[in-house]
Amino acid sequence: MIEVNKQGEVWVFAEQHAGTLEDTSIELLSKGRQLADQLKVPLAAVLLGDRVEPLCVRLGQYGADKVYLTEHPLLNHYQTSSYAKVLDELIHKHKPQIVLYGATPVGRDLAPRVASALKAGLTADCTDLQIGRHEIPSTGKVYENLLLQIRPAFGGNIIATIINYDRWPQMATVREGVMPMPEPNGRRKAQIVRENISLLPDDLMLEILAEHRQPKKVNLKASRIIVAGGAGVGSKENFKLIWDLAHCLGGAPGATRAAVDLGFIDRDHQVGQTGTTVRPVLYIAVGISGAIQHQAGMSGSQKIIAINNDPEAPIFQIAHYKIVGDLNQVVPMMIKAIREKV
After folding, report:
1. β-pair partners for 46
2. How do 282-286 and 303-308 pair as beta strands?
């Protein structure tokens, strides 16, 4: 644990792979900018890697006032021990009040290690972050300008707000896609603060000979139209209707976790609390009951059309347009109408 620093900066861990920034880190800069402005402190990105200085330009354009840059050949590939050592030293040195990570595989691995070393708290998989106050009823003591770390709990059935008023920095991982992607400002420049951290081969647990990354088969976050199917579609063969409707609309096929678990479609297409959070212009939910875990990943869509044969399905509570009927009849009619107009 480090001492509480009420004037400390807001930090975002800028995750990169092979010189490419992760979208989640850019999304976090958007929220980080809001938090830093509200607290009247600088927003800083922390960038680790080897020969990654060119990324500092983009981090500045997306809102960072500073970039703490540590370059070292031993940081070329992500490893928990080396990255955690660097972050631990930087946090002890500069004492930020908030540190945010994307809830990516790297973020979910790195953040707990750093929190453990600092004896600080960590809230995982947040869906929102706000600045607020907290009063302890037993003492009447009030803490101002705390990070309110908001996340689903108990399987998504409630929303919990978690605070950390005495063991700082306040740290959280944030789910991919829940924060809006900011627009870059080409006139903004970040101050580059170069940090030289001593690293030795013994600091690495593994020797990585090569790294192979399999790209996702679909980019749901960038899709303006998504047609998603649930367990109600019935079978993998029947899921062809979802693909056909998505293709004729120029959109992407999505799915609920239940549909993925049943083998109807690949996990890259999963939308929801344990999948991708999306905000398309149009979201068509086909055979989806609308469990809160799925709603958490798509309720921000601009227009939602729901097709379900159960008039009491929860999805209808958030849908803008409701179609009660057999998807095997409704979807082919929609495809035919769209193709005829084209």
Report:
1. 13, 68
2. parallel
Q: Does residue 303 have a pLDDT over 80?
A: yes
If asked whether residues 160 and 296 sit together in one domain, one would say no
Question: Per 3-state DSSP, what percentage of the chain is helix, strand, and coil (rounded to 5)?
Answer: 30, 25, 40
- The 10 Å Cβ neighbour count of residue 75 is 21
Q: List C-alpha distances in Å: 170 to 8, 134, 175, 236, 262.
A: 11, 14, 17, 44, 39
Q: What is the DSSP string of 261-300?
A: HTTSS-GGGBBSTTSB----SEEEEES----HHHHHHHTT
Q: Are residues 52 and 89 in the same domain?
A: yes
pLDDT in tens, 89-117: 999 999 999 999 999 999 999 999 999 99
For residue 4, name the pLDDT band (cuts at 50, 70, 90): low
CATH of the domain at 97: 3.40.50.620
What are the tens digits of pLDDT across the range 223-244?
999 999 999 999 999 999 999 9
The reply to whether 196 and 257 lie within a common domain is no
Tell me, yes or no, whether 81 and 172 share the same domain.
yes
Task: Report the CATH number that the domain containing residue 332 is assigned in CATH.
Answer: 3.40.50.1220
Q: H helices of the chain, where?
A: 23-39, 55-61, 80-94, 105-118, 240-249, 257-261, 292-298, 327-341
State the Rg of the chain over Cα.
Answer: 22
The residue count for the chain: 342
Closest CA to 14 of 83, 81, 80: 83
HSE (CB half, 13 Å, CA atoms) of 69?
20
Quick check: 85 and 201 in contact, CB under 8 A? Answer: no
Domain range for 162 is: 10-203
